[in-house]
Amino acid sequence: MIRLTTTRKRATVSMAAIFGLALTMTGSASAATCSNRGDLDKRYCDENGDLVADTPSDKSKWLNPSTLVFSYTPVEDPSVYENVFTEFLTYMEKKTGKRVRWYGADSYASQVEAMRSGRLHIAGISTGPTVFGVNLAGYVPVAIMGKDDGRFGYKLQLITHKSTDITKVSDLKGRNVAHVTPSSNSGNQAPRALFKSMGVQPDNDYKVKYSGKHDNSIMGVANQDYEAAPVASSVLDRMVEKGVVNRDDLRVIWESKLFPTTSYGYAHNLHPDLQKSIRDAFLTFDWKGTALDKEFGKKSDRFIPITFKEHWVDIRTIQKTNGTVYSEESLKGLKIKKKKKKKK
Known about the structure:
Blueprint lengths: L14 H4 L48 E6 L5 H7 L1 H11 L2 E4 L5 H9 L5 E4 L1 H11 L1 E8 L7 E8 L15 E3 L5 H12 L11 E3 L3 H9 L5 E5 H9 L8 E10 L3 E5 L4 H13 L6 H6 L5 E4 L2 H4 L1 H9 L6 H5 L12
Parallel strand pairs: 1-2, 1-3, 6-7
Antiparallel strand pairs: 3-10, 4-10, 4-11, 5-8, 5-9
Helix pairs in contact: 3-9, 4-5, 6-12
């Protein structure tokens, strides 16, 4: 196994530091020349009907920076995942011939905003926020973590502490329940759409309290700050495996069918040759013996190809059921800051 201590350490790039690394993102077509846009922001166009922004037809709008910036979906400790992706980013450098730098995002909104403004080029974006990234930032998902037989996914799990008397969804009425962020699929969008069919309407039957991250919701239930929380099974599994929480302290009272996990992709206006190199880097990287394998190997052992149109259909349906609007105003709602703990 390759030891992380022998790999080159990458300095985390702050938002301010990476600001000068890319040009301001521009639209692929004007309203006058675009015949199909769908849910995409007005700066993008979808002439081929694949539901993601087309690469600009004007070559002068293609980005081909000397340094690429990569970001993984916000987690409790971004520095840990910087190390997890170190070997992959080194491989990305070899495939693209570019320097690749890490950006530890503190919210889903910061990822989308960074790509929308041209400061972020490659990203792993969580399930629900992927739709916001596609429609508001010209994000093009191309891969997902999975197995060689094509299997992938996670479940929405409704968890509570074992000490509570909550045993079914209807018991949530009047309780202290944490959701993740407005854009999170398993942490908000799916519960709002699915719990309603089981007789419980979030915000009406219980007041939604946003925690900001799945990690925060899970820790909040484990510490009994929240009575229950809908979370991603993949995040819960990782936290249990690392010993951050004890599964015996928690009870899963309901779970959904499988949803796609974090998507991986790039900005739509990167040079077409660069897009191909990035896609190839994801789909040809050998996980064996790497930190990615150590971190995610129990559920995934490679990146496999996906399309937003096919694999995100259920997520788009859930968001439309909830009346989600993809706008700059809704983007602000993705930024839920973690509350500081009160000193005892």
